[in-house]
Amino acid sequence: MPFAWADLPRPIRALAPMEDVTDTVFRRIVARCGRPDVFFTEFIHTDIVLALRPDRPGLTPRLRFTPEERPLIAQIWGANPEHYRLAALRLRELGFDGIDINMGCPVRKIRKKGACAALILNPSLAADLIEAAKSAELPVSVKTRVGFSHVQTEEWIGHLLGQGIDALTVHVRTAEQESEGCADWEQIRTVVALRDAVALRTVILGNGDVRSTDQITDYVHRYAADGVMVGRGVFEDPYLFSTDGRAGRFPTASASGRVDLLESHLQLYRETWGEERNYEILKKFYKIYLTGFNGAEELREQLNATHDYTAAEEVIGAWRTGR
Ligand SMILES: Cc1cc2nc3c(=O)[nH]c(=O)nc-3n(C[C@H](O)[C@H](O)[C@H](O)COP(=O)(O)O)c2cc1C
To answer: Can you give the pTM of this predicted structure?
Structure first.
């Protein structure tokens, strides 16, 4: 059966796309801790998708996935409609379940190219990109923010809802806010009311500062979204999506529980990427897993001083024997 947003169970719980975090390895770690209902790739430029050629079969790391991570939505960015059309066709061939367009990344270098959050200021190009992405006949969704420099939910989100998209994720901050200040979930009420008025088939996900299963339930109830997308919350609790009683326990997990999860991650990363993806990217996860127990900081420092997998395994081995 082809993937359809409308068929997902409610509330829909999505793992957010996060660059250098939600690769095939971390998506599998999260899936094993507790599956979300849908996964996203890290954002990838349309031209990188188009650079894949039959005579160069190696897929860029951002497009690598296994069946364990499905349904999986490929998130793309760029500003050229024809490239969106071609990239969408290619992503369909590669087996992705849907295409998401990044209209929210506020990074200046990217905005300057007229892409991502800059599209909030260029609604007609945003509409052309959506239309072009639809040519592969995969579900097309958009992830965006409530405005650029100020909240413009009615005008911007109203415009997007007029484009016949299958799903819309709204990070309830403006682009200029980046990750600062509180996420304004009240905006989701407005988004849902707009959807109910003009685009009943579009699934609405709210995003921003959600940290627990209880918060997902509470927010969906309170703001009437179809679901919630969670990003940084899984750093505090990789089991956040679990429905078998493990959610919520990780913040007080024992040292060995944390180190075991880190080691599974390290092993899967090594097995998957070897030398292909930079070992240094993995260090970001040391901070996530190694916190909240005696000796966490020291172990983290030792691991941060390593530059390859073997040295990291040795540090972990020595920590275990020294306990
Ligand atoms: C390290 C990191 C990388 C991110 N990369 C992406 C990305 O590739 N695409 C995207 O749409 N958003 C990206 N985001 C934004 C998140 O998807 C999400 O919208 C944001 O973190 C707010 O949600 P949260 O409070 O649940 O983390 C990234 C966020 C972080 C922290």
So the answer is: 0.97
The reply to whether 144 falls in a domain is: yes
* CATH code of the domain in which 127 resides: 3.20.20.70
Model confidence pLDDT, tens digit, residues 192-239? 999 999 989 999 999 999 999 999 999 999 999 999 999 999 999 999
Q: Is 44 in the pocket of ligand 1 (CB under 6 A)?
A: no
The response to whether residue 36 sits with its C-beta less than 6 Å from ligand 1 reads no
- Report residue 4 CA to chain centroid gap: 18
Q: 266, 286, 235: which is closest to 15 by C-alpha?
A: 235
- CA–CA gap between residue 27 and residue 220 (Å, rounded): 23
220 within domain boundaries: yes
Cα torsion angle, 190, 192, 96, 35, sign: positive
Query: Would residue 105 show up in a list of annotated catalytic residues for this protein?
Result: yes
Domain of 297, in residue numbers: 253-321
Does residue 22 belong to any structural domain of this protein?
A: yes
Mean pLDDT of 97-104: 98
Residue 234 alpha carbon to ligand 1 centre in Å: 12
257/228 same-domain check: no
Q: Are residues 74 and 187 in the same domain?
A: yes
